[in-house]
Predict the 3D structure of the following.
Amino acid sequence: MPIRPRTIVALAAGKVTRVVSRLRGGGSALPGLVCEKIDPGVLRHTLGNLPLGVVVVSGTNGKTTTTKMLVALLRAHGLRVFTNPTGSNFTRGVLSSLLGDVSLAGTVRADIAVVELDEAHALHFAAQVPPTHALLLNVARDQLDRFAEIDQTARLLAQLAAQTTSGVVLNADDTYISRIRDEVGADVRVGWFGVDPRIADRLPELQEADVRFEEVGARPCLSEQDGLLLPGDDGGSFTVRFGDGADVGPMTLRQRGLAAMINATAATTSARHLLGADFQPAVAAAALAAVNPPFGRGEVIDADGAPLELVLVKNPAGFTVALGTYGAEPVATMIAVNDDYADGRDVSWLYDVSFTSLRERGVDVTSGVRGYDMALRLRYDGVEVAEVESDLDAALDRFLLTNAGEPTRIFCTYTAMMHLRRRLADRFHLARFGEDAEA
């Protein structure tokens, strides 16, 4: 189908905006917004034509990490993959990423697209480009000022599954996700990922009081091509086990913790469902082991010879897992909490997290719009806070100066992470958002 003149104009305007925005150090979503304003159907006229279709990755936690892993797996198997690597998971973020890979004629240099999308924006995307495949991860409290309740988040994901045309991969251990099986079309293939029954007792590490995971005995019946996570005895390695013996691993990720292993299991299962007989376990294991953590998700930065871990936290389950993975090691710690739209305005969820693991070393500084709220919350758990500095730049400068040459860690909400990561990129000559698509 010939491309419409309006689409050509939209793509041209978006590309120009993208260049100007990068020169001025602007945000990643603006070019997509310009493009979308000129032609609201631009996604349909571009991504809608990919030969192997479009995979949408959605859920509350782990979207960015899982998307990056799935992209790495498919590329390792020889596919050309378009993705939105910046973590801007609205439709305009996908568009902004697309502008670097699409010609003015609307041709995308890819065989398949794998896009991370926010639960609500996934439906806006699907209205233009019905996904051929979906990978749905989990449901937890996150930005309830936007989604009102957990059931609403689950309903959004169920609607996405209902609009998917070829295949859906679901989390067998998350009640809200496993129920979505009933919403999938009769001709759509359903796959599952989960944990091996032998480690089912570790699932509470990832659950909230009001988000229940099914008992393992009540989980859906898994097929031979559904993936199960089995951690190794050393605590760092793991294997993705398939019933037909095509196991992937053992392997060790560059990103630590059980949550990262579950994300890898989800990505591996989805890759196998997509690739079918072309899936190669050894290739998959090598690809996963080489994936760097996405910006701010357990990323380790070389801060003048000392490791600095940047850890995104945005809800009780995520913060609890982060503290369990990182917080037990007594290193110098900063916590930065904002309450912008992308973070969620209501930060009362901090009172559903136990911070007692930080008592031994204490917290050097709390910062961000809600820096004082965070300091008060820590006080209730008996965690000493040396300083509160609301200005993120000033807090980062003092934190790094005070702890020069020592390991450090920063827990931060989304917009605080974005701000701090840009400052760290400038300070330590790191890649900026959108520059690590192949990393």
Summary: The CA atoms of residues 172 and 220 lie 6 Å apart. The chain has 14 helices and 15 strands.
